[in-house]
Amino acid sequence: MSAAPRRARLSALAKINLGLKVLGRRADGYHELRTVFQTVSLADALEVEFTPSRSTSIAVRSEPEIPGNLVERGARLALDAIRVTGRVEFRLRKRIPMGAGLGGGSSDAAAVLLALPVLAGKNLPLSVLIRLASELGSDVPFFLLGGTAVALDRGTEVYPLPDRPPTSGVLVAPAVHVSTAEAYQALGRGPGGLTSETEQYMISGFQSCAWELGQALPGTPAPATGENDFESVVFSRHPRLKSLKRRLEKLGAHPAMLSGSGSTLFGLFAGRGEAERARQSIPEERVFVISLVSRARYRALWWRRLSPHIAGKVWPPQSRYA
What we know:
The protein is α+β, with helices and mostly antiparallel strands. Helices cover 34% and strands 26% of the residues.
């Protein structure tokens, strides 16, 4: 008699960058980054079904279809790491705009790494999950953590910052394609592209931003000192995005900023009412009202979605079948 399948319905949350500095290009071809990640409430819906089997098969149904989906790659890495075979079926409903600087594909991949071992009855330590996540993409390790976090290296070396106060905002996702490769090239951060004095100045500015974000008190607005290096080159090629940032600022956003290399912009507001009014004021664009999701809330969401399959509230989630 075949074993019964185990199922979970997951929410893979988006992220924004509260600050982003691009330093020189590394020997491996990646750029050295300094950024502050923040999870937000906009999410993809991912259904997972695992059935033990003598061989492995992975099926991904995605709305819309995504070539080279990281969900399948993440599943294969996870099953290889836990040395388990089985039939795995995914149904992915994309709500996070793709290629827009919000990390939707990375979040989907991290969701697979967190959930599949639990359903398969095996546990992986966080150190192993981070290693697997780094193989999948630069943003993926952050989604193993959630909340507010500072990231170094190419974005894969992640450290927690104190949770942000509850804050509402909007994401403006215009139908503008920004090539990440072209954005990096336009910055001119090749090997030796920055003097040591300029690089140290940038790092000092980023440190100041991170400290302010880490020390913000409940009930206080988010510091507006964060900067995104991509804005200068992306706005020069896409003036519409610069205009949208100015509109957000005039509507009271504090701050308003490009996320990643774009094309999505975000604006944070004093309350949900102000965020909703901002959404209504930009009817010609896709606008999502969102809230910042703290690390505590992020973990609680995961524990709730995996509750039939986990043993206690520990992180990363541990399988009760292990």
